[in-house]
Amino acid sequence: MAVTMREVAAAAGVSIKTVSNVINDYPAIRPATRERVLAAIRELGYQPNLSARGLRSGRTGVISLIIPDLKNAYFAELADAVMRAAAKERLAVIIEQSGGDRDVELEILHGPRMRMVDGVLYSVLGVGQEDTALIADVPTPMVLLGERIFNGPADHVTMRNVEAAQAATEHLLSLGRRRLLAFGRHPHEKVGSAGLRLKGYQRALEARGIPYDESLAIEVRRWHRSDGAEAMRKVLTSGLEFDGVMAFNDSIALGAMRVLQEAGLRIPGDVAIIGFDDIDETRYSLPTLSTIDPGREEIAETAVRMLQERIKADDGPPPREFEAVFRLVARESTDTVPH
Amino acid sequence: MAVTMREVAAAAGVSIKTVSNVINDYPAIRPATRERVLAAIRELGYQPNLSARGLRSGRTGVISLIIPDLKNAYFAELADAVMRAAAKERLAVIIEQSGGDRDVELEILHGPRMRMVDGVLYSVLGVGQEDTALIADVPTPMVLLGERIFNGPADHVTMRNVEAAQAATEHLLSLGRRRLLAFGRHPHEKVGSAGLRLKGYQRALEARGIPYDESLAIEVRRWHRSDGAEAMRKVLTSGLEFDGVMAFNDSIALGAMRVLQEAGLRIPGDVAIIGFDDIDETRYSLPTLSTIDPGREEIAETAVRMLQERIKADDGPPPREFEAVFRLVARESTDTVPH
DNA sequence: TGCCACATCTCCAACGTTGTACTGTGACTC
DNA sequence: GAGTCACAGTACAACGTTGGAGATGTGGCA
Predict the structure, then answer these.
(1) CB-based contact (8 Å) between B55 and chain A?
(2) How far apart are CA B307 and CA B303, in angstroms?
(3) How far is the C-alpha of A301 from the C-alpha of A280, rounded, in Å?
(4) Residues forming beta bridges with residue B62, ordered by sequence position
(5) Which of B193, B72, B182 is closest to B126 using CA atoms?
(6) DSSP one-letter string for A62-112
């Protein structure tokens, strides 16, 4: 059987509560007593029972990270960053996959497991602005991640999507490219990564006085590599002319790149291409992929810190919005070459 | 405040224990009573308090998955498969990253969080056969994953490394390639993925009567893409001649492939290459990468099922070994082309 | 009719921890 | 020397749930 406080207390010759006080850094304890208790803890190999602590104090030291899909490199890297940030705060992380499906996302949020975590990092694709009410009624402290809900009922950590997309587009324009695909559009979406990044694309064109041509805004439903490849195949078949691609994420950029190369097009010679997210793979593709570093570390650390603040002070300030600093990373896929 | 069983019981006009019995599918309950209780649960939106349940029953419904690194595609896909398998058993998964560091791996295993999970899936890189004793004393039900510990103190799920590596090598040999790099060696390692896969490589050569040339066994320390690229760069600089690469995982294969192409070598024309793991990316690289599908789904499902068995019957059978069925996936990187 | 078996439900205690309230002991103040 | 105060530690109850034993009712059978 596992060692409990009772046994530690007996070994140290103090009451159970004193053991508890030592563990929780309660100040009024004589150094000698503290030492005796700590020695007993070491001796017996005592580990606190987190279920009991959770029951009594209402805190479990576990937070939940709800994401669409770990197989997606962006979310895997986000999860990694979150877990490292959480480790610093001594928090464990339960990861839940939603598949990006709205109903699943809401189900998880209202499921019994929410009662066993201190807080949630909620990174959604399906749930949107119109679901604000369904999210507001969740009693668990929450931080929203991503671009689906702004000015919602909880703290929100995101990146400057519009500005970043504008910078990426401007980067291609500065190379002299003029027929740029906006690659990854979701029709009718205003908010959300796709909508915001399209807006950035449009702004960059506008700033240069170039008219927006909707036929260059290519729809890509899911943002997986295979979808990018498929969409690019269709574009090539259609005979559409272009000399640059502003892809809304790295995965579809890589998928598109592969199809372009198969078709005998040179990158960046014939087509310059830039992605979005700075996933690890962009550093090793052929050619290496220019992209936007969304500030993942900063996002993860800020989100965990904000959540921790909410957990500790359950009556904190009104919902906050935080936008991480992005960075354009120019690599081979947008090298300056004779057109 | 959250709804408790007490309130449900009051609403349904039964005792708390009856509510508990309904929830836990205790058989002797009149259908009418069950209905009333379920109705009250729905009505009030009751959710069980998992901390309390964990304290009382010793079960939390959470398992821990300890892996080296989520950023590594292999482990991300493993984690995904494990989480889907766990969801079927209504288990939540806490993921812990060890960085593949032996001390961290052991620390996590002996940490306080082990007391809050019902079981552990332990996928290690640092801990090895000689640490068996340190693992045996952990009271938590455990299933070992990977190739570091065989015939250990716990159930073990793995793949047929030697046979799979032999098949991959034989695949290259069957194309007429004779100077094959064993790419990914860890010097002095006998057990472990690197050791076993090297052995498979050697067996394949042996079966064809080809002598083993140690200079073709290339060391790659960490199995990340960048390490594969770097190692291949060294190989090319050294002037070593070869016409095939049997890479010990997909990431280093992809890294190597990129360097080979930069150097103007054609794949599979000049160099045929096969990887190991069948990560998603192998389907989208240029060329697509032949590889070994280790049977990830089967591994994940078997591991979770075995762990669940251990959790439910704490006095089960002696440790079991399970080896998943692998499959060779031939893609473009080993197409038949004139040499 | 009396007794037993069974189904159905309830009562009590306990899981290991922490919050609240309290006791005892000196030291210091006036 | 009485009152006050800070410190060090303790006792008790409670968090929400479930295991086990017990209570109650119901029907069957001798």
Answers:
(1) yes
(2) 6
(3) 19
(4) B92
(5) B193
(6) EEEEEES-TTSHHHHHHHHHHHHHHHHTT-EEEEEE-TT-HHHHHHHHTSG
Distance B59 CA to D27 C1' (A): 39
C-alpha A104: how far from chain center: 18
DSSP B58: S
Q: Mind listing the pLDDT tens digit for each residue in A9-56? A: 999 999 999 999 999 988 788 889 999 999 999 999 999 999 999 999
Q: Which of A130, A191, A143, A138 is nearest to A301 (CA)?
A: A143
Residue A339 has pLDDT above 80, yes or no: no
Query: Which pLDDT value is given to residue B314?
Result: 65
Determine whether the distance from the CB of A11 to the nearest atom of strand D is below 7 Å. Answer: no
Q: Which DSSP category does B216 fall into?
A: G
Could you tell me the two tokens for A141? 């402290």
Q: What is the pLDDT of residues A56-114, one digit of tens each?
A: 988 899 999 999 999 989 999 999 999 999 999 999 999 999 999 999 999 999 988 88
Domains in chain A (CATH in brackets) are 1-39 (1.10.260.40), 62-158+295-326 (3.40.50.2300), 161-293 (3.40.50.2300)
Strand C: which bases are under 7 Å from protein Cβ?
A: 7-12, 14-20
Question: Any bridge partners for residue B69, and if so which?
Answer: none
Report residue A312 as tokens: 């500790």
Of the candidates A50, A169, A231, the one whose C-alpha atom is nearest the C-alpha of residue B113 is A50
- The residues pairing with B67 across neighbouring beta strands, listed in sequence order, are B97
Q: Which two tokens stand for residue B168?
A: 């991959």
